[in-house]
Amino acid sequence: MFENFTAETLARIQFAFTISFHIIFPVFSIGLASFLAVLNGMWLKTHDETYLFLFNYWKKIFAVAFGMGVVSGIVMSYQFGTNWSVFSDKTGPVLGPLMAYEVLSAFFLEAGFLGIALFGRERVGNKLHMFAVSMVAFGTLMSATWILSVNSWMQTPAGYSINEVGQFVPEDWWQIVFNPSFPYRLVHMVVAAFLTTALVVGAVGALHLLRRKADVAARRMFSMAMGMLIIAAPLQILVGDFHGLNTLEHQPAKVMAMEGHYDSHPEGAPLILFGIPNPEEKRIDYAIQIPKMSSLILKHDLNAPLAGLDTIADEDEPPVAIVFWSFRIMISLGFAMLGLAIWSFWRRMRGKLYDDDWLKRAAIVMGPMGFVAVLAGWVTTEVGRQPFTVYGLLRTSDSLAPIAAPAVAVSLIAFIIVYFFVFGAGTYYILRLMNKLPTTSGVDMNDGPIRTAEKQIIETIHVEHKSDDQGEDRGILIIIYLGHHYHIRRTMLCHFRWL
Amino acid sequence: MFPSAKSEQDKSVMMNTIAPVWDGNETWLVMAGGGLFAVFPLAYAVIMPALYMPIILMLLALIFRGVAFEYRWRTVRWKPVWDFSFFAGSVIAAFTQGISLGALVQGIEVSNRAYAGGWWDWLTPFSLFTGCAVVIGYGLLGSTWLIMKTEGELQTRMRGYAKWLGIATLGFIGVVSIATPFQDPAYFHRWFALPGSVFSVLVPALLALCTWLLFKGLKHDKEAQPFLASLGLFVLSFIGILISFYPNIVPPSLTIAEAAAPDSSLKFALMGTIVLVPLILIYTAYAYWVFRGKVRPEDGYH
Predict the structure, then answer these.
(1) Measured between alpha carbons, how far is residue B275 from residues A80, A107, A137, B272, B282 in Å?
(2) pLDDT of residue A212
(3) Which residues of A, range 201-230, sit inside 8 Å of B by Cβ?
(4) Residue of A10, A61, A78 to mutate, testing the B interface (most B Cβ within 10 Å of its Cβ)
(5) DSSP A47
(6) Least confident of A127-141, A231-245, A307-321, B215-229
(7) Which of A256, A353, A386, B285 is packed most tightly, with the most Cβ within 10 A?
(8) Which residues of B touch A109 (CB under 8 A)?
(9) B70 and chain A in contact, CB less than 8 A
(10) A74:B34 CB<8 A
């Protein structure tokens, strides 16, 4: 299927494919790790069992997502060498130590404390367990910091010199780590991770609310997620704007492709909302545009001149169509997220957050959109800096490893088959975990007659036990959830043993 | 060792002995890639394309192995699938690591700062042999680990396996050790001329000591000793390889000094290593300590 491709094209497809799969999982586990830390902290602080219940519920989903992130991440740490060895030789002195720091200060932290966070509450006690959960969350954020520093250096290289064999040699580590685009990219990405996770948590909460409106745990999830959204969605748009201005300063060609500006506009550039890029004729067909708006956004002046791709040599131009579209997908989703945030905020202010079924349906539809937006954003920034791996200094075509095309074709096919199989299965298991909320069926435990509650829960266990293979597990969760109702717990345990 | 489990309970116990720490262990493998990239970028840039097929195979195998830890608890119907993927993934990862090591010992053709061979160069009888050696050696580590972490009938069976795997591992170490000096005249020289010949005496002596500790531990039903002695065998084997290579990092022609990153990179990386590695060792040791002792069927959060 790949007979006519060059080794370079194949290697690029392979890298794009493996990193696109990989990025999904860290985005989710960065957000989820912090969410778990908050849930566990709230449980310890308030002794409200709903938090503990949610912690145990999301913990399992986190474990599966984290596992997929680890194994797809190992691939990345070797693929620089296997397929981009010239790049590795030249940039290793600068990027290698940053990656080593990522492993040393983040991966080990996450992995070392993950076992305790997942399995160790009984063994180490609440305080140390909380510490472990926090370290996992901190580790995911550290990891994001280092890897985004690496990526940003490739976009906006600084603090280096070039030695006699053509390697980049570090001169000033401060400038390398805190290169010009790094702070913007880091904040943009971390907020994206929180936003994406909030959308997923919100969708799961909404799904269960549609089924059982009074469910305490589903309400808590939905409320927390929508709360996160109203902070993160507007913030992300603001951060994205700053990031865009930074890109305009350092990588103007990328912004030209994003905007679809083939031509220069000496007297104020229009904002092209939609259109079909026509690379042959170097113009945007059927463009719907707002005059001078682009200059206003990018230069804060209606009449500011903006250069177009006609000022860039053809061989240095990024592929416009891909960047143009991916950028529009990201932006539209960003505003859809803002819309959902405002809608839920308005409902909350009215005291009707849990009553609006259309809000819940919208939240479910938006559930996976964070991932789509993240992928679209990365496509924009990575395709937008082509044809370079190190911007302006090292071309992608000069970065390649001396591997024959058939070898890359074989490995690419293997990656495609294995990734769809393995990560397809994992995604299915995550969705199945999300689909089932082994909870309280909405009975308010503090007020309702205990006998009713008891009966209902025992029925739940019966049903769950028969209907799926994790009934046992669910029973335990319900017992934990009801921990403070001593006599219920006793009856429950009797029944449980009987089951 | 996984297929030797006689019951579902055995499988779960075996899995749970490493479930809390596998992720940390695999991070060392990421460190191997990242560390090589940081400290010896040229070696990284030469070795990875040379070992393209075994490395990619190893990565794919590790995917199957890694996800099995979680997946097998999430399904009933497909549990056998993920149990098999755990076993097969582990064996293939071990085999390809052994092949990579063997291919590296045989030497990698370098010209003009790049790998200059073809994409099947790694495949030789010697590298296939070292592949088998690592599979058997990891089997020994696995069985002795299970002796330490389990009890009862499962532990007794592992003692039986460990004995035979121990003998086989030593056989492989013996054959590879004899064959290695003949892969390259330089290796021969390093082992049989001073100062290398000092090690030629020392390393086998220590190997003999570990062997004695291993079999004595197995005979006297010691819990941890067989595992620690097996680890010793591995450490010594790697020291042996280092002696053969020195002063090269990629035989036959790329030296450690040539492949090393510039001083400014090494200094920066060293600072972090000095501070962070002891910390990592402390909390990794703590994690092992938290999950110390025997694993029982009722453990685990699943």
Answers:
(1) 27, 15, 21, 5, 12
(2) 83
(3) none
(4) A78
(5) -
(6) A307-321
(7) A256
(8) 283
(9) yes
(10) no
**What's the pLDDT tens digit per position in A154-175?**
999 998 888 888 889 888 899 9
Averaged confidence pLDDT in chain B: 87
H or E element in which residue A130 lies: helix A121-155
If you search the block for the tokens 């399995």, which residue do you land on? A119
Using the Cβ of A99 and the Cβ atoms of chain B, whether some distance falls under 8 Å is answered with yes
Domain-wise residue ranges, chain A: 7-258+354-435, 450-498
Query: How far, in Å, CA of A312 to CA of A323, rounded?
Result: 16
pLDDT one-digit tens code per residue, A26-70: 999 999 999 999 999 998 899 888 898 899 899 989 988 988 888
Contact A82 B55 (CB under 8 A): yes
State the nearest Cα–Cα gap between A322 and chain B, in angstroms.
29
Q: How far does Cα A399 stand from its chain's mean position?
A: 28
Q: What percent of chain B has pLDDT over 70?
A: 98
d(CA A141, CA A190): 8
Whether residue A85 and residue B273 make contact (CB cut-off 8 A), yes or no, is: no
ipTM of the complex: 0.84
Judged by a CB distance cut-off of 8 A, whether residue B38 touches chain A is yes
pLDDT band at residue B211 using 50, 70 and 90 as cut-offs: very high
Contacts of B274 in chain A (CB under 8 A): none
Tell me whether A124 touches chain B (CB under 8 Å): yes
Note the helical H segments in A260-319.
293-299
Cβ-defined contact of A418 to B60 (cutoff 8 Å): yes
Could you tell me the pTM of the whole model? 0.83
pLDDT at A87 over 70: yes
Q: Does B284 touch chain A (CB under 8 A)?
A: yes
- State whether residue A261 is helix, strand or coil: coil
Residues ≥6 apart with Cβ < 8 Å to A128: A116, A120
**Among partner residues B52, B66, B70, which is closest to A403 by beta-carbon distance?**
B52
Minimal Cα–Cα distance from A425 to chain B, Å? 8
Pair A58, A42: CB distance under 8 Å? no
How many residues in chain A?
499
CB contact under 8 Å between A107 and B30, yes or no, is: yes
Q: Is the pLDDT of residue A241 over 70?
A: yes
A89: nearest CB among B19, B34, B113:
B113
Phi-psi region at A270: left, alpha or beta (left = phi > 0; alpha = psi -120 to 50): beta
CB distance A370 to A27 below 8 Å: yes
The rounded distance, in Å, linking the Cα atoms of B196 and B174 is 18
Domain boundaries, chain B: 8-282
Instruction: Pick the residue of B17, B40, B70, B277 with the most A CBs within 10 A to test the interface with A by mutation.
Output: B70
